[in-house]
């Protein structure tokens, strides 16, 4: 056990939209400490979303993120020699983190040529309520629904 809870790190808002959420997203997307490259990819993807959908790119991204964030998830719990998948509520902080990670993960798996196009495509499809990241959320919810019988084993 740790002695005390670690301090929350303060994240500065991004330069263009002045939004802390964007910075967190870019930090998740970044490889090898290349933050300027990650910012460039994100901003270009948002611009591409604006061109394709004729609405604010940032709003589309926020909508996509809301569509991807899970409300419940299952956690493994060992009770009397058996493992149970116990459905639990997701903390607000973790909700956002999972949503961002899934959006990035499934954007990377898409078939387009550049990461900018992949991310833009995933944002557009997620804001419409479709795409792989939204499917992941729905699968998580289905799993929690299927294991609702074990919810009395909550931590």
Q: What is the residue-mean pLDDT, rounded to a whole number?
A: 91
Terminal CA distance: 17 Å
Anisotropy-based shape: globular
SS content category: mainly alpha
Q: Spans with pLDDT under 50 lasting ≥5 residues?
A: none
- According to CATH, the fold-level topology is Ribosomal Protein S7
Q: Write down how many β-strands occur, each being a DSSP E stretch of 2 or more residues.
A: 2
- CATH architecture field: Orthogonal Bundle
What is the top-level CATH class? Mainly Alpha
Q: Please give the largest β-sheet.
A: 2 strands, antiparallel
- Helix and strand pattern: HHHEEHHH
CATH superfamily: Ribosomal protein S7/S5
User: Numbering strands along the chain, what is their spatial order in the largest sheet?
Assistant: 1-2
> Portion of residues in helices?
55-70%
Percent of residues in beta strands: 5-15%
Query: How many domain regions?
Result: 1
């Amino acid at each position: 056990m740790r002695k005390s809870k670690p301090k929350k790190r303060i994240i500065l808002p991004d330069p263009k939209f002045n939004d802390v959420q964007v910075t967190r997203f870019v930090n998740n997307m970044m490889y090898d400490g290349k933050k300027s490259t990650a910012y460039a990819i994100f901003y270009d993807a948002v611009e591409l979303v604006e061109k394709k959908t004729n609405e604010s790119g940032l709003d589309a991204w926020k909508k996509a993120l809301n569509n991807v964030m899970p409300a419940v998830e299952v956690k493994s719990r060992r009770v009397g020699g058996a493992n149970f998948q116990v459905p639990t509520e997701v903390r607000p902080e973790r909700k956002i983190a999972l949503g961002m990670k899934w959006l990035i993960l499934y954007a990377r798996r898409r078939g387009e040529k550049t990461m900018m196009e992949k991310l833009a495509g995933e944002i557009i499809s997620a804001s419409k309520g479709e795409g792989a990241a939204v499917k992941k959320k729905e699968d998580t919810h289905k799993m929690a629904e299927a294991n609702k019988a074990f919810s009395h084993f909550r931590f």
